[in-house]
Amino acid sequence: MPQELEVWYLLPSLRKEIAKVFVNEYKISQKEVSGIFGMTESAVSQYLKSKRANELKFSKSELEEIKKYANKIIQDKKNYHKYLFELSKKMRGTKSLCDLHKKRDPSLKSDCSLCHN
Questions:
Q1: Which of 37, 54, 61, 113 is 20 to 30 A from 14 (CA-CA)?
Q2: What single DSSP character describes residue 78?
Protein backbone atom coordinates (compact mmCIF):
# COMPACT_ATOMS: atom_id res chain seq x y z
CA MET A 1 0.00 0.00 0.00
CA PRO A 2 1.24 3.51 -0.72
CA GLN A 3 0.78 4.49 2.95
CA GLU A 4 3.16 1.72 4.02
CA LEU A 5 5.73 2.99 1.54
CA GLU A 6 5.46 6.42 3.11
CA VAL A 7 6.13 5.06 6.60
CA TRP A 8 8.82 2.54 5.70
CA TYR A 9 10.64 4.40 2.91
CA LEU A 10 9.54 7.99 2.29
CA LEU A 11 9.77 9.42 5.82
CA PRO A 12 13.16 7.83 6.57
CA SER A 13 14.49 8.96 3.18
CA LEU A 14 13.27 12.51 3.77
CA ARG A 15 14.94 12.54 7.19
CA LYS A 16 18.15 11.27 5.63
CA GLU A 17 18.21 13.98 2.96
CA ILE A 18 17.29 16.72 5.43
CA ALA A 19 20.02 15.53 7.81
CA LYS A 20 22.54 15.68 4.95
CA VAL A 21 21.52 19.26 4.15
CA PHE A 22 21.73 20.25 7.82
CA VAL A 23 25.19 18.77 8.34
CA ASN A 24 26.77 19.49 4.96
CA GLU A 25 25.31 22.89 4.11
CA TYR A 26 24.34 24.41 7.47
CA LYS A 27 27.19 22.79 9.44
CA ILE A 28 24.82 21.63 12.18
CA SER A 29 26.14 18.89 14.45
CA GLN A 30 24.64 15.40 14.44
CA LYS A 31 23.67 15.99 18.05
CA GLU A 32 21.63 19.07 17.15
CA VAL A 33 20.04 17.25 14.20
CA SER A 34 19.05 14.40 16.50
CA GLY A 35 17.43 16.95 18.82
CA ILE A 36 15.44 18.49 15.97
CA PHE A 37 14.35 15.07 14.70
CA GLY A 38 13.64 13.68 18.16
CA MET A 39 15.77 10.61 17.56
CA THR A 40 19.11 9.27 18.68
CA GLU A 41 22.38 10.65 17.44
CA SER A 42 23.32 7.17 16.23
CA ALA A 43 20.20 7.07 14.03
CA VAL A 44 21.24 10.37 12.45
CA SER A 45 24.75 8.99 11.99
CA GLN A 46 23.32 5.97 10.17
CA TYR A 47 21.41 8.28 7.82
CA LEU A 48 24.56 10.25 7.07
CA LYS A 49 26.62 7.09 6.47
CA SER A 50 23.89 5.68 4.19
CA LYS A 51 23.26 2.75 6.50
CA ARG A 52 19.54 3.63 6.53
CA ALA A 53 17.01 4.83 3.98
CA ASN A 54 18.79 3.79 0.78
CA GLU A 55 15.92 2.32 -1.21
CA LEU A 56 14.23 5.52 -2.37
CA LYS A 57 16.15 7.66 -4.84
CA PHE A 58 14.94 11.22 -5.32
CA SER A 59 15.13 13.19 -8.55
CA LYS A 60 17.07 16.46 -8.72
CA SER A 61 13.88 18.50 -8.49
CA GLU A 62 12.73 16.48 -5.47
CA LEU A 63 16.10 17.04 -3.78
CA GLU A 64 15.72 20.78 -4.41
CA GLU A 65 12.28 20.70 -2.77
CA ILE A 66 13.77 18.84 0.20
CA LYS A 67 16.43 21.58 0.51
CA LYS A 68 13.69 24.23 0.57
CA TYR A 69 11.99 22.42 3.42
CA ALA A 70 15.28 21.93 5.24
CA ASN A 71 15.65 25.72 5.13
CA LYS A 72 12.11 26.16 6.51
CA ILE A 73 12.95 23.78 9.35
CA ILE A 74 16.18 25.66 10.14
CA GLN A 75 14.14 28.85 10.44
CA ASP A 76 11.45 27.21 12.60
CA LYS A 77 12.91 24.12 14.30
CA LYS A 78 10.06 23.66 16.75
CA ASN A 79 7.72 22.92 13.82
CA TYR A 80 9.91 20.22 12.27
CA HIS A 81 7.07 17.68 12.23
CA LYS A 82 4.73 20.11 10.48
CA TYR A 83 7.24 20.67 7.68
CA LEU A 84 8.07 16.98 7.38
CA PHE A 85 4.36 16.22 7.05
CA GLU A 86 3.91 18.92 4.39
CA LEU A 87 6.91 17.61 2.48
CA SER A 88 5.69 14.02 2.67
CA LYS A 89 2.33 15.11 1.23
CA LYS A 90 4.14 16.81 -1.66
CA MET A 91 6.12 13.63 -2.37
CA ARG A 92 3.06 11.37 -2.52
CA GLY A 93 2.51 10.06 -6.02
CA THR A 94 5.90 11.17 -7.32
CA LYS A 95 7.66 9.06 -9.92
CA SER A 96 10.36 8.15 -7.39
CA LEU A 97 7.86 6.75 -4.92
CA CYS A 98 5.84 5.06 -7.67
CA ASP A 99 8.99 3.41 -9.07
CA LEU A 100 9.85 2.11 -5.62
CA HIS A 101 6.30 0.81 -5.20
CA LYS A 102 6.56 -1.10 -8.48
CA LYS A 103 9.96 -2.46 -7.46
CA ARG A 104 8.69 -3.64 -4.06
CA ASP A 105 5.47 -5.11 -5.49
CA PRO A 106 6.10 -6.83 -8.83
CA SER A 107 2.41 -7.75 -9.10
CA LEU A 108 1.55 -4.12 -9.94
CA LYS A 109 0.80 -3.46 -13.58
CA SER A 110 2.98 -1.00 -15.46
CA ASP A 111 0.00 1.36 -15.85
CA CYS A 112 -0.84 1.25 -12.13
CA SER A 113 -2.28 4.52 -10.83
CA LEU A 114 -2.79 3.53 -7.19
CA CYS A 115 -0.37 6.18 -5.89
CA HIS A 116 -2.01 8.91 -7.98
CA ASN A 117 -5.60 8.46 -6.83
A1: 113
A2: G
